[in-house]
Amino acid sequence: MSDPDQFRRETRAWLEANCPPEMRKPMTSEGDTYWGGRNAKFSSEPQRVWFERMRDKGWTVPDWPKEYGGGGLDRAEHKVLREEMAAMGARSPLSSFGIWMLGPALLKYGNEAQKKEHLPDIAAGLIRWCQGYSEPNAGSDLASLQTRAESDGDDFVITGQKIWTSYANYADWIFCLVRTDGAAKKHDGISFILFDMTSKGVTTKPILLISGASPFCETFFDGVRVPKSHVVGTVNRGWDVAKYLLQHERAMISGMGERGVGRPLGQVAADSVGSDEQGRLDDAMLRGQISSFEIDEAALSAAAERAVDLAKAGQSHPAFSSAMKYYGTELNKRRYEILMSAGGVDALEWESERSKGGARPRAWLRTKANSIEGGTSEVMLGIVAKRILDLPGA
Amino acid sequence: MSDPDQFRRETRAWLEANCPPEMRKPMTSEGDTYWGGRNAKFSSEPQRVWFERMRDKGWTVPDWPKEYGGGGLDRAEHKVLREEMAAMGARSPLSSFGIWMLGPALLKYGNEAQKKEHLPDIAAGLIRWCQGYSEPNAGSDLASLQTRAESDGDDFVITGQKIWTSYANYADWIFCLVRTDGAAKKHDGISFILFDMTSKGVTTKPILLISGASPFCETFFDGVRVPKSHVVGTVNRGWDVAKYLLQHERAMISGMGERGVGRPLGQVAADSVGSDEQGRLDDAMLRGQISSFEIDEAALSAAAERAVDLAKAGQSHPAFSSAMKYYGTELNKRRYEILMSAGGVDALEWESERSKGGARPRAWLRTKANSIEGGTSEVMLGIVAKRILDLPGA
Amino acid sequence: MALVLTEEQSMLRDSARGLISDKAPVSHLRALRDAKDATGFSRELWKAFAEMGFSGLLVPENFGGSGLGAVEAGVVMEEIGRTLMPSPFLSTAVLAASALTRGGSDAQKAAHLPKISDGSLLAALAVDEGAKHRPLQTKLQASRSGNGFKLNGAKAFVVDGHTVDLLIVAARTAGSAGERNGLTLFLVDPKSKGLAVERTAMVDSHNAARIEFDNVEVNADSVLGEVDQGGALLEGVLNIGRGAVASEMVGLSEEVFGRTVTYLKERKQFGKLIGEFQALQHRAAELYIDIEITRAAVLKALQTLDGDFANASAAVAVAKARAGTTATRAVQEGVQMHGGMGMTDQFDIGFFMKRARVCQELFGDSNYHADQLARMKSY
Amino acid sequence: MALVLTEEQSMLRDSARGLISDKAPVSHLRALRDAKDATGFSRELWKAFAEMGFSGLLVPENFGGSGLGAVEAGVVMEEIGRTLMPSPFLSTAVLAASALTRGGSDAQKAAHLPKISDGSLLAALAVDEGAKHRPLQTKLQASRSGNGFKLNGAKAFVVDGHTVDLLIVAARTAGSAGERNGLTLFLVDPKSKGLAVERTAMVDSHNAARIEFDNVEVNADSVLGEVDQGGALLEGVLNIGRGAVASEMVGLSEEVFGRTVTYLKERKQFGKLIGEFQALQHRAAELYIDIEITRAAVLKALQTLDGDFANASAAVAVAKARAGTTATRAVQEGVQMHGGMGMTDQFDIGFFMKRARVCQELFGDSNYHADQLARMKSY
Description:
Chain A contains eleven helices and eight strands. Chain A is α+β, with helices and mostly antiparallel strands and 394 residues long. In chain A, helix 9 runs antiparallel to helix 10. The model of chain A is unreliable at 256-261 (pLDDT under 50).
């Protein structure tokens, strides 16, 4: 790699020069996230400027190879970039399931044509992807999926239903698990396939959640015709790709909480609960709950750091992401229970301007999905029991 | 029944006149409990006087029929007696597994000869009993017991090993589960049998526990000859008797904590931790833990009261004692964790006079058995899941 | 007093359950929410409630009510908790009726209680001002003015505050925030000049309002109880309200638990009913035990309110604290065990989670009551 | 700094583990306990420790030590936690060596540090006075007297206090209990006139003493650091001790957990290995995760002590609090999952439960550190 100190200086200077001040503030609403795609609109001019500058440097995907639109940074450089962005509070220029999930899978399992076709478009934010995994009768038990892809010449013809497809109604393409061999055992006979959401036979229907938002859809496939060349990896071996990708997803979700971001919980609570003459929160029980939470949060943060370092040292257990996913999501739920308790009545309002449209209770309800999506907490514990502890029959 | 108010007045007057002042103080050591039996000694003169007076009234077993040495009280009268004794702090005159466990089983399953032979001796504290249930490879899984009783004319010849036999080294007789049909299914082929611990072939070996005490023994039977007439109930149907008796045991253990007895936990803690100027415990976190504990304790106390009332009203579920056993024992463990935390360094001393020979840490360690003995917490939850919630495969 | 319902109380429960499950299942609340109904509950249904004697449950017989107690109020609240039916039962039939009965002059009682009984008058209690329930922190100022008082300040979380005909307002006539002395309750006409009501749409789709008082004039007759001495009256009324909300949470917990156990017996994953998984079995069993124990604690509090009102505070604190933690656990396990379906608005389970959160906050959350209990026990 | 052990640290761990598991398995502690050994640890083993350089681990190289840091101390403590080996490592090699290194004059260092390194000097830190760890509440009085001081008061829970050659005593030279200013550390000869040592037999069979000071005279040279300014020095030394004890608890937790998982794979009930029961599997998995996360938090604290000593308090509070709750959970699950066997003295598991309780209390329990963290973060 380049001289690390020099790279850090250059990076910092470039960010200082190119990141608009508006893009250095914490995100406060959905619109602050830019997802890209055919129909994407920027919510502000600084958002556009920031995205385009970063895209041009390949820094929407800093560690992807340059030939696919990435920044070509090595691990150490990428860490420096992340640190410098965090230090200045710079927002991520592009959020995308293509970056977080499909990209790593294509880099590992895709053929050259597939990489060339899809990766640059992901990096440039031109195509927005969604993930077609879960099905109505295969929630935690993903491998029991029923959507079938029947061979017809050079194509597969896909029929079935997906559920919990994130933003399927906004997505341009889908990466999808389908059953290509109905006679094989549960984990066999599954393929990982890509297709355009505008294909004939694809319909989506948003699911209204308890938070009032609809980030997920039901997605229906009625005889969707997809070229066989769109299968990633080997036909009937899609489960390998899916597993690889799930680990990425879990690592991502475990880090999704607002660890260390924004004001400390105890001060947020003091706003609504008040403090005594010694400066202690005027609700001793809540104070204890917050402090216990912050201890666990700091410990998780150390564990996340250690997980990365163990991986670098080649000492990490491949199933450890399940442990982190479990703990991170349960902790994030706890954070929001505390925020609701601290907010009291103010945190119960659902629509007023005062409450920013009920931002806190809606976010609270949203967290309840953390321990379900990407593998339930129960499934995570089962994985740890089986793969790490090697308990019998787990 | 008699006029309840009159019975209450008479009872109170009799207790006032007959219960020595020393017997109205809380028990503080093992020696304060009188267990009876062939080798029993009274630890004090007031203990003897109190025992004999109560025995003469039949009030060591107030609700047993008079013909078997009991007091012949009906349910309402028995409740009045318990209330009046509690109000004055009167100690129980006689503790005995014969009273708590064997007696109820004999009253329900015993034949007339067995009742006549054993019940009056239990009531009079002449014979001390122990319980031979658990075996080394059948802890929670009681029904898989291996001790076998082979038929030989009018006798059974018993060979095997028991474990966790409470005070077997002090007991005169044992009520014991043995396998009388090795070919039958697990829960069949078990009989409930009584025999003298001085029989040839019986040996006991105390088990040293982590608390430093040895309330339990390993008990060995090497060809112990017991008349078949000593079987209670039907041969091979001993599991029915055992189950009936286990429910008694669980109800008893769930009530074993010191609920409402002695000084409130918060004040005990204040002794060692101190209080602030507002009179609040000088350890806000501990204060919250104590308060949460006391909420749960008060709730359990209400639940225990309600369980009795539901039973009277014929509305109780027979498996509910498992629920109470689970909660009561887990709560008692919590109580002692709090007491250890409140006691700090002082509660870590194991031998000094200052610490009464390490009374607190020893009692703390003792409570860890609460959720194991009489059916583990896990077994209790399984029973609730199966018998009350009717969950599949539980 | 046995800790079980009497035969009369069981009959009351059956008739409440019959009416509520028939006329106001969860879909009733859902429909009101989706229609953004201006009232937030069904006046027609309230009429039916009144006809069955529920609105006058706590009103003395000589004022047209049934003269029953906290246990009976709890019986009805528990059924309300099962379907989350929105109604003025808590605000009017429990809180206002108790406040008037316990603190009102003969004239005040005669003026309002018969109307509460017959369902024609709705009333609300206005206590909270900040984010958390802290009745002694009341700051809303009532200053003497001519023959009466002028009220200045603001109230929040006034249950049903936007639809009622009468407000019972806790105000400070002396002392400063934190003191028990100097609190006074006032009967205030919500149409008074200077009074502004803002309905607040709540997470649970139930009714609440924020109310501002800008030199609102009331006459001397509008004092409920004694001037400066309203603290004890208020605390007593709040205790009845706490017992009632705790009962609602017991009903809510049991309903969510029942639905969850049913789901465990229906839903298959990995080729098994999920209820066959032992980890879920144990959690379900723990929750069952939790609910049963809470039920006993709540009934104990209600019976103590009826039998030994002056000494009920500890039992009430235990009940409200326990009910809050139990309901929180029940809805959390309910959503988690329902998996993704539990997150959808289409399933009812989210409604229970939302309502449980509001009930937790109402009249003091579990933390508040744990702290109160410690104070009562001097540690 | 990567949150993993360096190669050198891993080698240190291996050599500590080799020695300890070979010479001091749990049976070593058991034998000392059963013999009611007067010293409470093996002097011979301590000599071996010194020869391997462990006693001088934290002593600067110019005083005969290795000049290593908190991470290395934690590595050894963790191995000690695995077998519960009693030794003066914590009292002498960690606490006393740190106090002298950080606060000692050149003369004090020269007098004591080489002897700590070669294993010939044992020393203990005397801080606690009441039932709970509250260093600022120090009341033991040091009043000026001639050229020196007179000490009056009492200390409790002095680890290894009955066998040491040197005491480091926290005393109050000014201010009153609760204040940080006015604390001073003294080097005191335990054979001084007026000093009475009572060995206290502890639940964990480790060593501790109560010490009374009745007009104990010390000269001015015995002040460690600055008069009245010992608070910061003391807090720093305590932080190192906390990190060390947290490490011991990580080792202890992992050992108990490992034994428990082994038992789950061996013990049969109801015709199955108990490890096949899903409820136990999930609890074991949760505990595993808990331990892993605690391990990271503890290593973070140790690295912070080595890298940014002045700002390590928050990380140390997190580590000690987490380690305490994790160890408590580990031993509780350990005993419960071992069933009746876990209750017997014959099984080692009880030793771990007893030691965990003492470690929890040592230098502040989880509650103490949670409170401290809240103070540091101003809420």
